[in-house]
Amino acid sequence: MIPHPYVPAPARYDDMRYRRSGRSGVLLPEISLGLWHNFGDGHAFDVQRAVLRRAFDLGVTHFDLANNYGPPYGSAEENFGRHLRADFRPYRDELFISTKAGYDMWPGPYGEWGSRKYLLASLDRSLSRMGLDYVDVFYSHRPDPDTPIEETMGALDTAVRSGKALYVGISNYSAEETERAAAVLRDLGTPLLIHQPRYSMLDRWVEDGLLDVLERSGAGCIAYSPLAQGLLTGRYLDGEVPADSRMAIGHFLTRDRLTPGLLDTLRGLDKIAQARGQSLAQLALAWILRDRRVTSVLVGASSVEQFEQNAAALAAPPLAPEELADIENLLRAA
């Protein structure tokens, strides 16, 4: 049986809110879809398709990838390319697609970090896997302590000038590294569009200078890991570790993180969320978006229901000053 062609919802842009990335012309949805964990070969292709379709139907135009997303490495881009060909090719100009290079991707001295050779080779491979002529933004996924920042930023500039990327970004750079990178890119004539840092209620390092640097540089911010690897999803509120959780398998999260003090904080945050008619995860996403310097929040999703629940964080009213104060008191005690 030939499947019916995908036709996106006509009203897909009616309810989603968009924010400008720094001082650029780019508007991103406040909730973006990250393809890190759930789009590799180990996840059902039909579920991937359903999540992507539902996200686009809700006005999510930004899909975020990297060369080594999977597992195995490269499989998220390959699978996304299949979805693009089957469903989204007619809507390419409505999509904002990003990829990154910086972490290990292939063996040998040219398979990771920030050299010109690695970055540009990786971009070519990413475009081939996805079946794209260009990505909307190409990121340096992490700073390279042994490669001059001028070389790394020069490679990003080349990606734009060659027509293989429209914009450039960086990820996991400190405030000081970001300031240097933005200055180099500005001199090259390819301004920094956006920075992708880790940011959540439980990991607030970006507030110690990075957001200020981005504001001065005219760059946006898109937060990844906004739910602190699942700690802010509500799965651990009873103090137990579900067998299928990241903490149970030690995947970026270990059991020693779940201290009595943290549990008290999570339960207090959950009470605030319930009073607002939200889940803890929805509160966590809304809290990040309280700062207008944040352009978008990246969420992953293993099912349509999970994505819909995350996207519903935008339906609640903005956090009131007294709610923000209560949250701050709880976070100080964490």
Radius of gyration: 20 Å
Overall geometry comes to globular
| Protein structure class | alpha/beta
Most strands sheet? 8 strands, parallel, barrel
Strand segment count: 10
Can you write the helix and strand succession as a string? Answer: EEEHEHEHEHEHEHEHHHEHH
Identify low-pLDDT runs. none
Name a few traits of the molecule.
334 residues, 13% strand, two-stranded antiparallel sheet, globular, alpha/beta, 11 helices, 38% helix, single chain
Walk me through what this model shows.
By secondary structure, the chain is α/β, with parallel strands linked by helices. It has 11 helices and 10 strands. The chain has helices at residues 45-57, 75-88, 116-130, 149-161, 175-188, 210-217, 246-249, 260-275, 280-288, 304-311, 321-332, and strands spanning 18-20, 27-29, 31-34, 62-64, 96-101, 135-140, 165-171, 192-196, 220-223, 296-299. The strands form 2 sheets. It has an 8-stranded parallel beta barrel with strand order 3-4-5-6-7-8-9-10, surrounded by 5 helices. A two-stranded antiparallel ribbon has the order 1-2. α8 runs antiparallel to α11. The longest helix is centred in the C-terminal third of the chain and has 16 residues, at 260-275. It starts with 17 loop residues before the first strand and ends with a helix. The mean pLDDT is 95.
